[in-house]
Specification:
Elements lengths: L2 H11 L11 E5 L2 E4 L4 E4 L2 H4 L8 H13 L10 H14 L3 E5 L2 H20 L5 E5 L8 H5 L4 H4 L8 E5 L4 H5 L6 E7 L1 E2 L5 E2 L2 H13 L3 E5 L23 E4 L10 E5 L1 H4 L16 H16 L2 H22 L3 E7 L2 E6 L4 H9 L2 E2 L1 E2 L4 E4 L7 H18 L2
Parallel strand pairs: 3-15, 5-6, 5-7, 7-10, 10-11
Antiparallel strand pairs: 1-2, 2-3, 4-12, 8-9, 11-12, 13-14, 14-17, 16-17
Helix pairs in contact: 3-11, 4-11, 12-14, 13-14
This protein binds pyridoxal-5'-phosphate.
């Protein structure tokens, strides 16, 4: 079949919830993707921050193949060696005490919210809980995750969702303070906002919210699904601040390509919230995905991934500053490590299409924001290649 035939066949059967680019990807190697016509693309999206180690990494592939030949799934009524190993390594990597594995980011958020609500319920046996979330936030598409997502258009048709959620302004501590009541059980936010437009939380805000939560016995949930796993130059983005979340979520890069997420808790919350029978999942944490998590964490260490993010992230920042200085339509450049964005005064769809035509995969974060989320193994040379193509794409788009 040719490209158009694959697309037509897919569109005939798929529920149309995505406007997809007209590309059929076939395979990947390193930081490059190849479509079914053999065209090569430099990848600055990494499957939305999933493929942190790049494509076709032999050691990772071998670990998965070996696990396939042993066992894929056991259910959570039993233990497995990959589960034991991944749980130990991930809690250490995250500086948290306990972990629950899920199949996606949204499910990690659901579990985090349930843990926070149960904690509050155990404290006062009330059902009247309030949660504070942020404008521009994104936490996923299931009903609980959607309830705390800051984009009204995503929520509107599906309300009422879960318990009372109030939205504060990100990076505005007073706006959080103003929403706190004696019913507030949790504050949930991304340490660096992703889908909402690449907004890094500043030190005063992140540390201020943490302090506010601790003073009022409110749980702090940090969503690190996009900004975590090394992407901003530390294991998790919150590790750079003087804070400690009670619950945090991870997904996307944690499996290096397989669908897996997790929520992690401090002992304080783990010991006073969800107990046997309160939460579960058929697939979550199965031996296959845990073998992937285990290998990803090994390769993060042996490949000095965090050092690379710091090094190449700084270089990417410099290069994107140059691009912004040259392009009259660029409004603001934001981000940290290998999670950056440029806001334009026009929609970025034409830029993305032109980049794709020229062999560069980029994505937006909101209509006007171009997002850079490459595999964490890119080099400074890859950044140069990207900026060359981006310059061409900008010229074409604004002609
Ligand atoms: C992607 C994302 C989610 C949702 O993850 P899914 O795996 O798509 O359910 C939640 N929070 C953040 C910050 C994300 O970037």
């Amino acid at each position: 079949m040719n490209t158009q035939e694959y697309i037509d066949q897919a569109e005939q059967a798929l529920l149309h919830t995505y406007n997809r680019y007209q590309i059929v990807f076939d395979h990947g190697d390193g930081v490059y993707l190849y479509d079914t016509d053999g065209k090569k693309y430099l990848d600055f999206v990494s499957g939305i921050g999933v493929y942190a180690l790049g494509y076709n990494v032999k050691e990772y592939n071998d670990a998965l193949k070996a696990q396939i030949d042993k066992i894929l799934h056991t259910s959570n009524y039993y233990y497995s060696a990959p589960l034991a190993s991944a749980a130990k390594k991930l809690t250490e990597f995250a500086h948290m005490d306990k972990v629950f594995f899920t199949n996606s980011g949204a499910e990690a958020i659901e579990g985090a919210l349930k843990a926070a609500i149960k904690y509050a319920y155990n404290k006062n046996h009330s059902h009247e809980h309030e949660i504070i979330a942020m404008d521009h936030s994104f936490h996923g598409r299931t009903c609980g995750a959607l309830a705390v997502t800051g984009k009204q258009a995503y929520r509107e048709a599906f309300e009422p969702l879960i318990c009372d959620v109030k939205f504060a302004t990100y990076n505005d501590l007073d706006s959080v303070k103003a929403l706190i009541s004696d019913k507030t059980c949790a504050v949930i936010m991304e340490t660096v906002q992703g889908e909402g437009g690449i907004y890094p939380g500043n030190k005063e805000f992140i540390e201020g919210v943490d302090k506010l939560c601790k003073e009022n016995d409110i749980l702090l949930i940090l969503d690190e699904i996009q900004c975590g796993m090394g992407r901003t130059g530390s294991n998790y983005a919150w590790h750079k601040f003087d804070v400690k979340p009670d619950i945090m979520t991870t997904a996307k890069a944690v499996g290096g390509g397989v669908p897996v997420g997790a929520f992690l808790l401090t002992d304080k919350v783990a010991n006073a919230s969800l107990v046997a029978g309160d939460h579960g999942t058929t697939y979550g944490g199965n031996p296959f995905v845990c073998a992937a998590v285990d290998k990803v964490l090994d390769l993060f260490e042996s490949g000095h991934i965090i050092d690379n993010v710091v090094n190449v992230g700084e270089y990417l920042y410099e290069k994107l500053e140059e691009i912004c200085a040259e392009c009259g339509h660029a409004v603001e450049h934001r981000g940290v490590g290998l999670m950056q964005g440029i806001e334009f005064d026009v929609p970025v769809a034409d830029i993305i299409n032109s980049a794709l035509k020229n062999g560069l995969v980029l994505i937006n974060a909101g209509t006007n924001i171009l997002r850079f989320l490459p595999p964490l193994v890119i080099t400074r040379g890859d950044v140069d290649t990207m900026t060359d193509i981006l310059r061409t794409a900008l010229k074409e788009a604004f002609n």
